[in-house]
Write a structure and sequence with these properties.
Elements lengths: L1 E4 H6 L1 H9 L4 E5 L2 E6 L7 H27 L6 H23 L1
Parallel strand pairs: 1-2
Antiparallel strand pairs: 2-3
Length: 102
C-alpha cells in the first residue's frame, strides 16, 4: 500500500487512478494524516466491500470498548449496578431539563 497526498492526487490523478485500476491501493493523506483509502472495486463487488469495511470498523470499535471496560474494571458490574447507573443518569438528565424549562 502506498501513500498519496491530497495535492498529489489532484496533480497526478490520471497516474494514481491508473495504478488503482491495476490493483494498487493508496492511503490518501491530508496534512500528514490518513483521511481516505483508494482501492479498486468491480461494480459487482462494491456493496460487499463496503459491508466488509463497515464490519471491520465495528469490530475495532467493539475491541476499543472492551479494552476500556477492562481498564476501568467495569466487567465486574452486575446487572443491578448497571441499572443503578442508568437510573442515576436519567435522574440527572430529568433534573437538568427541569432547570432549563423553569
Amino acid at each position: 500500500m502506498d501513500y498519496v497526498t491530497v495535492r498529489e492526487l489532484r496533480d497526478k490523478s490520471g497516474e494514481v487512478w491508473q495504478r488503482v485500476e491495476s490493483g494498487e491501493e493508496f492511503v490518501v493523506t491530508r496534512n500528514g494524516l490518513p483521511c481516505a483509502l483508494l482501492l479498486h472495486a468491480e461494480p459487482a463487488e462494491v456493496e460487499d466491500l463496503l459491508r466488509a469495511h463497515r464490519a471491520a470498523r465495528l469490530g475495532a470499535v467493539v475491541k476499543r470498548l472492551q479494552q476500556q471496560v477492562r481498564e476501568r474494571g467495569s466487567e465486574q458490574l452486575t446487572e443491578e449496578d448497571i441499572q443503578a447507573e442508568i437510573d442515576a443518569v436519567r435522574r440527572e438528565r430529568a433534573a437538568s431539563l427541569q432547570e432549563v424549562s423553569g
